[in-house]
Amino acid sequence: MIKLSACRSIIFVWLMLFFLPVSPSAAPQRDKQSEQDQELQALINKLEQNEAFYSELELKLNENYQQPPGNTRPKWKVENETEYSILVQGEKFRQEEITAGKFRLVPSPPQKNQRHFLEGMNTTLTLFDGTTYRRFHEIDHESARAVGQRNQNKLGEISDLPKRMENYGRPHMLLESSPHVPLSIFLSGKKAMVHFPGLPVHPKPFQVKAWIEGTGEIQGLKCTQVVVERLNDSGVRFSKQILWLAQERNLIPVKIVTYYDQFSREKPIKEAFVDEWQQLGAGVWFPRQAHIDRYNLILFKYNGSYEIDWRRQYTVQQITLHPKVQQQDFSALMFPQGTTVRSRFNHQQRKYIVGEEKIRPAEKE
Q1: Could you point out which of 10, 196, 256, 365 has its C-alpha 20 to 30 Å from the C-alpha of 356?
Q2: Could you report the per-residue pLDDT of 343-357, keeping only the tens digit for each?
Q3: In a domain, 349, yes or no
């Protein structure tokens, strides 16, 4: 009798737990979360539709880099100019960039008689034809230690494992250097970014938590305000961004404010703005001028001063949608004599210098 009574008590308690109503506060919270997810997904769908306008383009872009901007520290100022020439056709792309001016050299470890500022030029050409990735990079700088001499180097890469296109050809990501994916993919989260074609900039992906905060107005434009948090594998946030997507400008961000938790949760480490727009056709817009300001983490951390570390100013010199292209535009690259080339195909790697017969034996990855 005692055993039977105990069993009945257990069954009764189990049934009570099974039929116990859900907490009245839990259901509304789930409904609210579901509604937020639906709103975000609807926004992502609209972004995809607008990003499609720019799937084929030819772009010429100028970038002026100053560190620090203005004349706050003229003795330590670095300034250079980069000319970008970009051609995009779906997943195929060609990007040429030439940077000339003054560069800062930070030797590690510090060396005696080491120059900290060098005049020089960097040239990079990157191509992807849908199958093969090619890249050529050349540097020509003043020597860091020998006055009157030059430091010159040519590096090449050819591979069946492509790296992703940088964001200069993506107007929705012009104000954000990383990750190298469309904004719709970024807002979709880690899984979407991992499955996006091509190798990422940073091999270790991060988690993304995004939601629509509301609406606002920037520079007279009605905007959808989106908050994006980046989290590590443990779910701990390390950065937060607020994006203002201009509703009358194809949802291109007109402003992005970035917070790094190691810097400050109250003061942004980076602020970016589209300063001027141009209309390419009925209902299709593109930034004409934009800039990004990044604040000095070291000065803020040790001196408490909040100063701009560097500024990048962008000027679109030419933009054409659906340009006429030839397929060799995405594959034609002849490495110059003396270029050190790394080649990778079918998981086999080799290294050689153009003009020399010696080739390093293939290696398995």
Answers
A1: 365
A2: 999 989 999 999 986
A3: no
